[in-house]
Amino acid sequence: YMRTMTLEADVGLLIGILESFSDAIDLLPGPMERKLIDEAHRRLSFVLSESNRRRNERALEYKNADDEIREEIDEENEQEDEMIGYVGSVIKSMVDLSKGDYLPLFHSSLHSILWQYLSPKSSEGQQAAALVCYDNIIEACEGSARKYAEKFLPVALCYVGNENRHIRQAAGFGVGLCALSLGVEGFAKYTQGTLKTLLPVILSKDARSEDYEEATESIIVSVSKILKQQRQRNKQVVGEVLPMWLGALPSMEETEGPVTHRILLEFLEDPSCPIYGPKNKNMGKVLQVLGSIRNTEYADEETSAKIRALVQKISAGLGNAAMTNLVRNLSQEQRANLL
Predict the structure, then answer these.
(1) For residue 128, what are the contacts with CB-CB under 8 A and spacing of at least 6?
(2) Does the predicted model carry a pTM greater than 0.85?
């Protein structure tokens, strides 16, 4: 695979080679040897450099081209973007096996090229591919990637409101990964600014539109993880944000939704938690969320059991009349899930 990727000039065929190479790495029983990683990096660097060269040549041609030629150039550049995404897949396969040991090898070879793709001047495909690449590296290396996380966080925050849904999703998910990598103390100083940037995105009018649904779910997951992490370290900030976070729930994402809802239950089980609002004014929303997720794929068995116990406790505390009043505003399905 490594030999052919530097010999193949057809971008479409190169995409297939990179995909197969990534799949082959995934089948390895352990990390690749350093000399093989260095060789892979050398060839991937060549592939990216050649892609940049071709794109620059097309940019010069584009200036004086007619509409038909420009359309062809746009299609060729889109294919280049797809190819860069598969370079990222190869990197993900390598870092998943080597974890933190991969970082110095990546930093000395591919980092400088891929980081340039995060520039506002890069194509949307380049930006999305680079964001996903750094997401994967930070996720796989966790605390070992703290230096990357600290540098990547402000870049990701710049892109969380991007109109391109792929860019928005990769950036939003990456913010949460940065928080986990930096840890409670390392992320503490970024908590307020980060939440201030993320919340308007998940509460915007188009947050649940078809275009942005998946991106919104990714950002909700990041907000959830930050709130849990900073619950004690940044009590005031977290307390102010909780009701707004509640307003963006439930999370209808099968993989991360249950994670978010486990975090929600941790907060709700504390009767003094600010999430309920003054005089329990948010109780209706709380019940609506719980009724939407209990006994569904968005809540695991333990969470569903805790929801039942919590609702019984809430009902006892409010009294039958108040509880009946609140439940009346729920859908039939939500009421059935709760009662």
Answers:
(1) 81, 85, 164, 166, 167, 170
(2) yes
Q: How far apart are CA 106 and CA 207, in angstroms?
A: 35
Q: Which pair of tokens denotes residue 237? A: 């900030």
Give the model confidence (pLDDT) of 127-140 as tens digits: 999 999 999 999 99
Give per-residue burial for 4-31: e unless 16+ CB within 10 Å, then b. Answer: ebbebeebeebbebbbebbeebeeeeeb
Burial class (CB in 10 A: 0-12, 13-18, 19+), 142: middle
Cβ 151 vs Cβ 107: under 8 Å: no
Q: Is the dihedral of CA 45, 47, 53, 55 positive or negative?
A: negative
Q: CA-CA distance, 292 to 284, in Å (whole number)?
A: 12
> What value, to the nearest 5°, has the Cα angle with vertex 46 and ends 2 and 56?
140
Whether 37 and 105 have beta carbons less than 8 Å apart is answered as: yes
pLDDT for 292-331, tens place per residue? 999 999 999 999 999 999 999 999 999 989 999 999 999 9
